[in-house]
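Posting this for the archive.
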Amino acid sequence: MQKADFIDRIVIFVKGGKGGDGSASFRHEKYVPKGGPDGGDGGNGGYVFLKANPNLSTLLSVSEKKKYIAENGENGKGKKMHGRNGKDVVIDVPVGTVVKDFETGEIIADLDKPGMVVCVARGGKGGRGNIHFKSSTMRAPKISERGFEGEERKLVLELKLLADVGLVGYPNVGKSSFISKISNARPKIANYPFTTTIPNLGVVTVNDLQFVVADIPGLIKGASKGAGLGNVFLRHVERCSVIAHIVDISGIEGRDPVQDYFDIRNELEHFSKELAQKEEIIIANKIDLISKEELEKRLEKLRKETGKQIFPTSIITGEGIEKVVYKLAEIVKESKKFHTQSEVVNEQIKRPKPLWKELPERFNIEIIKEGNDFIVTGTYVEEWAKRLNLNQKDGYRKFMELLEKNGLESKLKEAGIKDGDTVWVAQRAFEYKE
């Protein structure tokens, strides 16, 4: 048994992997002095996915890491060998997670069924190798493309309140103490839409299973008619797997635990037949306050009157607590298995097309003058500079040809360039010669 925090809203950063660069390679074979181009393409960058996992009940495990970045694609190689695609990142989140874009607030997905998968960041497409650039005028192209950057974004993950165990009982029977004992519950979790009371929630981890325990405060005589907490919160726990009913077996406040049990059951019946029909265990708390003989008598009476399984506990000493928690975990696991089998979507991971942008060969060039320096810029100037490997002779030549085709010379003259001035293109400096 392990304690866990309840975390219901987090912000994470996700980024798809960059595509690998294409290769500018040539065949090297015996007796073939001038082999043709054989550079392969770069692999696509990995993707980032979210998947609804029915075994999780909190965003705690996701919150432990703030950035999720998929692997980059491998660069292409000679002999027309394409680079390997980058590995994907699959983030498991609880069922009921709503995914929003941090900047716009747009809802990207509502993962409300087990097995649902959504792609939240695409990888970049790999760059083309030099086999794609061979032409009648360029038989041995020393040119290849760089891979495209992956998609990146900030996400808000919000978890709808989904309780697995509904805790009921009269005030002062030890419900809040029970939740505190088995989890790292905070007194206030979030601003839920309830008028008088904030639900007390805790998350428990047993082996690979996480489950949420929610106190149902205000469930006393008249609660089903709107007294105390009212109906709003109760609707949230109607999907729970089990009701854990705590009674004060010691009766030190002068109340009869058996009568208390039936009072609460009556309210449950009035409020929701569905909730009242859930599997139920009875936790007989405060066993440390009475003698063993008296305890046995009271436990026997409670068993006989209710026909339910009774778990004697002392939240103060811890006696019996672990046994209760493992029983709750067993019931929740079975219930989740049933719901998973009936609701599971089991979506296959589908990759949309990787990120890639076709760049136009006709585009606008801007010239910024700073003293005797003339900076060549523009949206597509920058993007072509990123796309082509300017360290390659033919890559740089193609880049400059594109600029000339789009009027670089005339734009420089319009800006007032003179012989000997400095031209900056893609972070490279040249002396202008008329």
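The longest helix spans residues 321-343. The first strand starts at residue 2 and ends at 4.
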